[in-house]
């Protein structure tokens, strides 16, 4: 399969590329990668997809929402998180359709917090929005195209936390989305059967 990984130079993206490279043709895309793309910029996404051409799967591991105490949330911070992580990824699904082969897939990235965390309000809003979007849009996609979302918690390589998951294990969830047949699912790495 030919798979585009957006965010290929990041911690999770690099692990996804490593997990896929033995069995698939991987096209690396990132802000400063071989295929330049900014998930929050619709024109950039369109250019990248046109450059790449026809593919079997599009994966996005590029988006994030900052941890910001609720008292410090401004309209600008809300707008940036919504534009980049929520709207950027949701519209990636529709923008990818003309470039996906029949039976292809799109895999997005949300996130999960094991328990309430100070400053996680905007992240929770965006993550839950993505999960709901994927559930709702999956039955509507044409030509057998599938969509799923992976919701990693803390990734071991980015944080010294006792409840973290190794990036390689997180990457396996993305591989499952590309190589499997599920659609409309929220996959939580480390949990059997997703969430």
Give an overview in words:
With 195 residues, the protein is α/β, with parallel strands linked by helices. The protein has a single domain (2-187), classed as NAD(P)-binding Rossmann-like Domain (Rossmann fold, 3-Layer(aba) Sandwich). It is built from 5 helices and 7 strands; from the N terminus they run E-H-E-E-H-E-H-E-H-E-H-E. The protein has helices at 11-20, 42-52, 75-96, 121-137, 167-179, and strands at residues 2-6, 25-30, 35-36, 55-60, 100-109, 146-150, 186-187. It has a 7-stranded parallel β-sheet with strand order 3-2-1-4-5-6-7, with helices on both faces. The longest helix has 22 residues, at 75-96. It is globular and about 45 Å long. The chain starts with a strand and ends in an 8-residue tail after the last strand. The model has no long low-confidence stretch (mean pLDDT 90).
């Amino acid at each position: 399969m030919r798979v585009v990984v957006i965010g290929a130079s990041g911690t999770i993206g690099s692990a996804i590329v490593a997990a896929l490279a033995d069995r698939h043709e991987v096209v690396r895309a990132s802000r400063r990668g071989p295929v330049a793309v900014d998930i929050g910029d619709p024109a950039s996404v369109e250019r990248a997809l046109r450059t790449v051409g026809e593919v079997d799967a599009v994966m996005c591991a590029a988006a994030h929402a900052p941890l910001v105490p609720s008292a410090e949330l401004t309209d600008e911070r809300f707008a940036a998180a919504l534009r980049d992580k929520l709207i950027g990824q949701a519209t990636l699904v529709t923008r990818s359709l003309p470039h996906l082969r029949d039976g292809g897939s799109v895999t997005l990235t949300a996130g999960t917090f094991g328990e309430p965390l100070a400053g996680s309000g905007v992240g929770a809003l965006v993550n839950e929005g993505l999960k709901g979007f994927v559930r709702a849009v999956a039955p509507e996609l044409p030509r057998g195209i599938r969509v799923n979302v992976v919701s990693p918690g803390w990734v071991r390589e980015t944080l010294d936390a006792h409840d973290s998951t190794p990036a390689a294990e997180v990457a396996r969830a993305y591989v499952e989305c590309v190589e499997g047949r599920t659609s409309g699912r929220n996959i939580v790495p480390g949990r059997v059967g997703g969430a």
